[in-house]
Write a structure and sequence with these properties.
Blueprint lengths: L5 H9 L10 H13 L3 E6 L6 E7 L7 E6 L18 E3 L2 E3 L3 H18 L8 E6 L9 H8 L8 E4 L8 E4 L1 E10 L3 E2 L9 H22 L12 E9 L5 E2 L2 E10 L5 H19 L11 E8 L2 E2 L4 H10 L7 E3 L5 H8 L3 E3 L14 E3 H20 L1
Parallel strand pairs: 3-6, 3-7, 7-17, 8-16
Antiparallel strand pairs: 1-2, 2-6, 4-5, 5-18, 8-15, 9-13, 9-14, 10-12, 11-13
Helix pairs in contact: 1-3, 3-9, 4-8, 5-6
């Protein structure tokens, strides 16, 4: 049985308010110090301000393929959420640990750090690596500089395990994502003469309706992958901003939206489908002499690739055998840095971690204590495998 220090480390990690786009360096340096005390070498990859950083650590022999445990240290904001417990102070009760990041994904980070500390005291035949990144929640931003640097080294892992919450099931793939802004333009004027001008918010409304029509089409006629709980690609609007005052017809409205694709579906084709529906709606609106709108200007903000696992059968069998119980393999709708590991390092990737995505990004986020224990046992078996192979 694994001695469980991961719970205490998880509580310590929750106390770092490492919200995306804010400093995570205190957390990273704390982990680096823990690793150094065990003789584990690590490298930091800092962003320009020096307040955020990735960490890459290795224990075991160099020059041979090993296993990478990958996790992100950033969490989503808590403002506007009704928490019943302190968000950045771990609360343990009824077999759960509550706190921002408990499930997504400081639970796995704590288990992975402890696995590294245990592995440092074993004569490993293959190395164990730890990759911790920043700003994953806003599009896997931070990890890219680390992977670009690692791509120029000897590192070619036999496997990367991304510890996003899967309830300790093996996820063999996830959808890709592209995030966009649509700038919808109008022509301002006094609201008493609103029909004489072009309302940018109305243009945005047509665009949103166009995306919804595209989504309906994709759900019925698009590619399907039944291994996902939502088996088709999705188009989602997350934010709209426009207008200066009630009595001014607005001249600009910005729509933030995303497209998540299953394998074989083109983001460009789905965007074109949404714009085609928008064009038809605009044509219907431009009647009776009303001002004619132009299609929004689309700007891509961020994108990361989907993940289609390509894991050797013997490696997959070894990972599955390391889990506390046999579980069906799944695919997950949310994204991760896994596709980037595959892209930059040509590494086989699986997603497997403690907790449920259903708890992520919510008030009173939690992870079951039993999930942390299961993750500890899983990683301990992987360490034993690295010592034997």
């Amino acid at each position: 049985m694994v001695q469980n220090d991961s719970m205490e480390l998880l509580k310590r990690l929750i106390a770092f308010p490492s919200v995306s786009l804010t400093p995570n360096i205190a957390l990273i340096e704390y982990v680096q110090q823990l690793l150094a005390q065990a003789g584990i070498r690590s490298t930091l990859f800092r962003e320009a301000s020096g307040t955020r950083a990735n960490l890459f650590a290795t224990t075991g022999p160099a020059g041979v393929p090993g296993i990478v445990l990958s996790g992100h240290t950033d969490v989503v904001p808590v403002e506007g959420q009704a928490w019943s417990v302190p968000a950045f102070e771990a609360t343990e009760r009824d077999g759960r640990v509550y706190g921002r990041g408990a499930a997504d994904m400081k639970g796995f980070v704590a288990c992975a750090v402890q696995a590294m500390l245990r592995a440092a005291h074993r004569p490993l035949a293959r190395p164990l690596h730890l990759a911790l990144s920043y700003d994953e929640e806003i599009g896997c931003v931070g990890v890219r500089s680390m992977l670009e640097a690692l791509a120029d080294t000897w590192l070619r892992p036999m496997l990367c395990i991304v510890g996003e919450p899967t309830m300790m099931q093996i996820a063999t793939g996830h959808k890709g994502k592209a995030a966009y802004q649509a700038i919808c333009c109008g022509r301002e004027g006094h609201s008493s003469r609103a029909p004489s001008y072009l309302n940018a918010i109305h243009v945005a409304a047509d665009f949103v309706r166009g995306l919804r029509a595209a989504q309906d089409h994709v759900a019925e006629h698009g590619r399907q992958d039944t291994e996902f709980d939502i088996p088709y690609s999705t188009l989602h609007v997350g934010k709209i901003g426009g207008g200066k005052a009630l009595n001014i017809v607005p001249n600009e409205c910005v729509v933030d939206f995303e497209i998540r694709t299953i394998a074989g579906e083109s983001v460009d084709d789905l965007l074109a489908l949404g714009l085609d529906h928008t064009r038809k709606l605009m044509a219907a609106d431009a009647r009776d002499g009303r001002p004619r709108a132009e299609l929004p200007t689309i700007r891509q903000v961020n994108a990361y690739p989907g993940l289609e696992a390509c894991v050797e059968p013997e490696v997959m069998d070894a990972v599955a055998a390391s889990l506390p119980r046999e579980t069906p393999k799944i695919k997950v709708a949310y994204g991760s840095e896994g596709g980037l590991f595959r892209q930059h390092l040509n590494a086989p990737v699986l997603v497997c971690g403690p907790g449920s995505i259903e708890q992520a990004h919510k008030p009173d986020e939690y992870v079951e204590v039993s999930q942390i224990k299961s993750c500890d046992e899983f990683l301990e078996r992987l360490v034993v495998m690295l010592a034997c192979c």
